[in-house]
Structure formats: structure tokens, C-alpha cells
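sorry for the late reply, my laptop died twice this morning and i had to redo everyting from scratch. anyway the thing you sent over, i finally got around to it. pasting the sequence first so we're on the same page, its 257 residues, then the predicted structure underneath. double check i copied it right bc i was rushing
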Amino acid sequence: MGVTPAALIAAACAGALSGTAAALFSAAYVRLVLIGMRPDCRLCMLAARVGWCRPLTARRRAARRNPARVSRAPRAPRIPGASDRSLIFAAMLLAVCFGLLCARDGFSARFFGFAIASFLLVILAGIDWRSHLLPDVLTYPLLGLGLGLAWAGVGVTPAAAIGGAVAGFVFLYVCAAVFKRLGGREAVGRGDMKLLAALGAWLGAGSLVWVLALACVAGVVVAMWRQRTFRPHGDYPFGSFLAGAALCAFCLAPWLR
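ok and here's the structure:
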């Protein structure tokens, strides 16, 4: 499909804005969870207000009323990862993703569907990286959107979407049960299972093999790099690596054309 340079630039700009919004939302969401709020739909709406609107507007209003008091007031502590570097990384990541999706599909229903899914994956990756949580209120919409678009003829077939969702959940469930029986502790959380089920609805069962392989390799490489050893230990947020591998599949996989 022929796509003009202006369309690619517009898609990349939309991706950059979406990536920034995703990073701000995930940081605000984790901050609210850490102070004891329940992860549900209301928390998502509050995180959107806190992440996108309230920190800037509230401080500006207070500054107009009492500039001296605002200048002396300490800022709210920032959670790990809510930095300018993470904002730039998320913006660049989704700018590239949106640009590749647009180059492949143009501004079609397929593009908008996978763009929304990419946006949700960046949010989930940010939340999981900071808090080891994959909230159902975000994974279920990702699953439902994948099944709905498959039924509408966008992406894989409906049978492949349902089979991929079931295969993704069952595979990680069995792996977690075996590891718990042999090792005595849980290695995979229910959130990872639901996320892989959602990815199966988008990619189908056969493509999940490559997503899992890429996520596992990336997880091991990052763990070795962060710990400076070839035998890393400890827990890492597997959902973040699943999301990254899925983004690669969304943008580059030939079976999604």
C-alpha cells in the first residue's frame, strides 16, 4: 500500500504523543497503587487525570494564587522509572511502531486497531516494570479488542484468535504449575497468563512461540546486563518483555499483513 511521507510523519508524531501519554499514565497508575488504591476502572480514570492533567494544571493554579508558597513546597516524590528518559524512550518506541504500522497498512482499520493495542502494551509494560502488576482492567480490553477485530476481519481469523487466546493462557498456566511443583514457588503470575492470552487473540497460537522465545531471550539478556553476570538470579517483570516482543511482532511480522 502506497503511503505518502506526510502520512508517515503524522503517524510518527501521533506515536510520539501516545508514547509520552502512556509513560505518564503508567507512572501515575503505579504511584496511586503504591499509596494503597485498588486497581480498578476508577483508578485508571484517576491515573489519567493525575498523569495527563492534574500535576501541571494544579501547580499552575496554585502558583498564580501564592507563588512564594509553591516555590517552597516540596514536589511529590517520583516513582522509579518516571523520568525524562523513560518518557523519551516510550515516545520514540511508539513513534517507530506507528510509523511502521502506517507504512504497512496506511490509515486503515488495521492500523488503528494495532496502534491502540501498541498503546495499551506500552502502558502495561511500564506498570509491570515498576510494580510487577498487570491489571485486569487493561489486559481484558486488549483481549476483547483482539477478538473483536478478528471477528471483523482485521488480523487473524476468529478461530485463530480464540485458539491463540486459549493456548496462551493454558501454556503459561501449565508451566507455572510445573515450576511451582518442582521449585516450590511461583515463576509466572496470572497477569502474565492473561497478557499472553490477549496476545494470542492478536497473533494466533503459532506466532506466540516466537513472541515467547523473544521475550525469554530479552529477559535473560537484560538480567545479565543489569547484574553483570552470566548467571543472573531474582525476579524480573516478564510481562514487560512479552509486551516488547509483541510490539516487534505487530510491526514486523509478515503474517499480520
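Residues 5-256 form one domain.
thats about all i looked at so far, will dig more tmrw
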